[in-house]
Design goal:
The complex is a heterodimer of chains A (171) and B (384).
Chain A (H helix, E strand, L loop, with lengths): L3 H7 L4 E4 L3 E5 L9 E5 L11 H22 L3 E8 L12 E6 L16 H20 L5 H26 L2
Antiparallel strand pairs in A: 1-2, 2-3, 3-5, 4-5
Chain B lengths: L6 H14 L1 H6 L7 E4 L3 E5 L9 E5 L11 H21 L4 E8 L12 E6 L17 H26 L9 H10 L1 H9 L4 H7 L1 H7 L4 H95 L6 H36 L3 H26 L1
Helix pairs in contact in B: 4-8, 7-8, 9-10, 9-11, 10-11
Classes of the chains: A alpha+beta (171), B alpha+beta (384).
Amino acid sequence: MTCLICEMIDGDKHIIYQDKLAVAILVPNPAVEGHIMVAPREHYAIVEQVPDEVMSHLFIVANRVSSAVFELLGAQGSNITVNNGIPAGQELPHLVLNILPRKENDALNFKWAPKQISQQDMQVIAAKVKDKCDYIGHEAPKEKPMKIDEKKEIKADSDEDYTIKQLERIP
Amino acid sequence: MPEQMTKEQIAQRNAQEREQCIFCHIISGNRPTYKVYEDDKVIAILDIAPAAKGHVLLMPKEHYPIMPAVPEPILAHIFKIAKGISQALLKSMLVSGTNIFVTNGVYAGQQSTHFIVHIIPREQGDGVDVFSLPKNQFDKVKLGELHQALSGNLHLRLQDKLAEQGLLQEATVTEQELLDIIDANPKLKELLKANIKNIENVIEANPQLTAMFRGKDLEKVKAHILKPQEDEQLEAVNQLLKGKRAKKKSKEEAVVKKVEAEAKIEEPVEKRIKMPVEEPAEETPEEIELRRKLSMSGVTEKAKKLLEKEAMVPSQSTVEQEIEEAEVSAESLAESVSETSIPEKPIEKKAPKKKKKEAPKQHSEDEESVDLDAIANLLTGGGK
């Protein structure tokens, strides 16, 4: 399998910055002028595969690139977007951070239609998410045993959720 | 821009914004919220007007208006947590994708004055299609120009700024790597060279340098910075010297040749000058000996010697006549010696002066030679 991003990283043509972990690429088919992609040098498909240090580094590079492009292009703002997974709009199997210099009345618009969700649902969602988020801090100290436990729990949870969802959909 | 404001102004503005900032109130617990994650640096809540179910807002607890204003250690932490939240959303919301979204500035869609990272769970066909980016055909020439402008500027910029935070792997440098970095950055090297005496102040003034030079032996660095300079200078000097030496040699050779050429003409002249000088000089000891012998021994002794010599001569009949003649000759000798002994020294003194002039020497030599001849003649002739 050949990866377009990996090919771009190997070739020097589009690269405007690189270090040991990250590469910044000037996108040949940009969404706006100065559209830059920051990618990990290693091939990672999604955010979850990327090690923490690399993740932090990618965003720090992205931050620097965005402020540099700011000044160079006289942009009035910038967006950093990550499309993580095919439903999120990811097109290539290599994780990239899109840096988009923004100007007034440019072609981009990231405004979404806000959804109305009841307080009850919000509480349920919050509880679910919080349950998983509690693992964030604890992943590092307890590594292997925790992961095994997690997977088991996930499976149990997901089964429950699916059944609940299916039950909800039936009527 | 925050960079253009003083620290006090930024603090003042931040304080004002903090008072008005909804998220700061949420963080301080003054407003109800759906909190999903919290630690000492960041907090994550559910968006009350979400793009999708489980839309999370992740923010630093400290108030920063935009991403570039956030200190990088905190940024590093924020996105480490963002990754964790994304993972948590995949598991909890049973989705197969997330968008991580950052807005900087009103034109980028920022609505709050507090820096926020959006993490949005995504499902196929959820209707949140704003994140798929258009692909435009862009002018290749313009793209090339942009590439040049960015790749020239950005690399150094990021390298420096990341080195400042010690986040680049190159930033945690060993001493040798530091020296290599200095070699690789002529500007830095020039800066350090120019301020070699105040190198500590220069390093302190620049945070990225302080980070780089932390725990490094400054003396070594100084030595390293100066060494190549010396080598270069030495090489340059050597080359110059080689050139000069070659020129000098050629000049010297030319001069020597000229001198030799001149000397060839002059030498015989000198020899002419010297030879007559040397001759009397060689002769003078003989003269002196002769004269001393003459003066010391006295005329009578010489006369005796002469007599002895004469005695050797078999003819003894004419001895008396010869003695008379010898006495006469001795008298004349004594006279001649007294005459010659007085001008002896002046002649010697004059001799060096006369080297320059040939004519008078010859005269003096002639005189001397004449005198000597006379003496010799007298001595030998006396014998005869």
